[in-house]
Write a structure and sequence with these properties.
Blueprint (H helix, E strand, L loop, with lengths): L9 H12 L2 H8 L3 H15 L4 E4 L2 E4 L1 H22 L12 E5 L2 H6 L1 H11 L4 E5 L3 H7 L7 E4 L8 E9 L1 E6 L11 H6 L1 E5 L6 H14 L5 E6 L5 H6 L4 E5 H8 L4 E5 L7 E8 L6 H13 L3
Parallel strand pairs: 3-4, 3-5, 8-9, 8-10
Antiparallel strand pairs: 1-2, 5-12, 6-12, 7-10, 7-11
The structure holds a DNA duplex.
DNA sequence: TCACCCAGTATCATAAGCAA
DNA sequence: TTGCTTATGATACTGGGTGA
């Protein structure tokens, strides 16, 4: 049987107080017990450890060599317990050294991550971030044990054990190079339908649904959509768009990120298409976790509807 | 599965005695 | 005299058994 099981851990508080005050009476006073009760507690400690622990000498209760040997580990353990109990409802971003793991696709990392990293540098300098990309099935398996703290994106297959909150909404736009020969000020429907397109389908997210909507739109007009380039990563796309006549349909937040890196223009689509919604997902186990709550609040405040 | 009862055990306080 | 230990009784807690 585990020896610790037979020890009343409250007795360690008596041990700790005895070390500090060197008196059974003052220990009793400090702990709100009577002196005999404290003496009895000391007797149980002595019985458990097989050592007197404290002996009377020069008018005070002096620790034995065994008591001195146990002093540091016991005080350290009690300190950790106190911190675990007292701090469990509180998360201090300024002093925390926690690492958050956030699952988001490549677009999320491009759009959301820069703002989050900048915010963290200001208000949570010791907090580390790990951005990862994985399928929603893998993310759902990793979230209950804390390997993934938060998932950012749009998913329809998260189970009942998960919460979700809308982080932001956006709309789809078209991106084309400046000086595109078929576009003069506005993107017309004939120009859009006749252009060659880039299809952006990252491994994680709901972009396949967008592709289906676009295919439906083209079919409605009796035109076959020509996809000249299909990519899963947007890294080199601004450069490609700026040097070709290809058009790409993407969320507006991503389109504006493209504008910062290449001479491209953003156009409203010449047809109606449902808006895009970005959610954050977390496991029920971390619903009341102060650190996770703080993380969610950062995303919600940085990317308002 | 839950509520209740009961016996055994642990803990605490009071009182008294003992040692430095 | 002060402070610690021990004996004793009261109370609370725990776990097993039983019945609804």
């Amino acid at each position: 049987m585990n020896k610790l099981y037979s020890l009343d851990l409250n007795l360690l508080l008596v041990f700790d107080a005895m070390l500090r005050v060197g008196s059974v009476s003052r220990t009793a006073e400090e702990m709100g017990l009577t002196q005999p009760s404290t003496s009895n507690a000391l007797a149980r400690l002595r019985n458990f450890f097989g050592d007197p622990l404290f002996v009377r000498s020069d008018g005070a209760m002096r620790p034995t060599p065994l008591a001195l040997q146990m002093a540091e580990p016991v005080q350290e353990a009690l300190g950790q317990l106190r911190r675990a109990i007292e701090d469990k409802r509180y998360f201090d971003p300024m002093t925390s050294c926690r690492r958050f793991s956030i699952c988001m696709n490549e677009m999320g990392q491009r759009v959301f991550l820069p703002k989050i990293v900048t915010r963290f540098a200001e208000i949570a300098p010791g907090v580390d971030l790990e951005a990862m990309e994985m399928t929603s099935q893998l993310a759902q398996a990793a979230m209950p044990n804390g390997d993934v703290d938060l998932v950012i994106g749009y998913f329809s297959d998260f189970g009942p054990s998960f919460f979700r909150q809308r982080v932001t909404t956006g709309h789809y736009v078209a991106v084309a190079r400046k000086g595109h020969p078929q576009i003069d000020g506005i993107l017309t429907l004939p120009a859009y339908l006749s252009a060659s397109h880039i299809s952006y389908v990252p491994a994680l997210g709901n972009h396949a649904a967008l592709e289906a909507l676009l295919a439906e739109e083209f079919m409605k007009h009796g035109v076959r959509r020509r996809v000249a380039l299909r990519v899963a990563n947007s890294l080199g796309i601004p450069k490609i768009i700026s040097s070709t006549d290809l058009i790409m349909t993407v969320p507006s937040v991503l389109a504006h990120a493209f504008c910062e890196t290449a001479p491209v223009q953003v156009f409203d689509l010449p047809f109606d298409i449902p808006h895009i919604e970005i959610f954050q997902y977390w496991h029920a186990r971390y619903h009341h976790d102060p650190a996770n709550q703080w993380l969610r609040a950062q995303f919600k405040s940085l990317f308002p509807d």
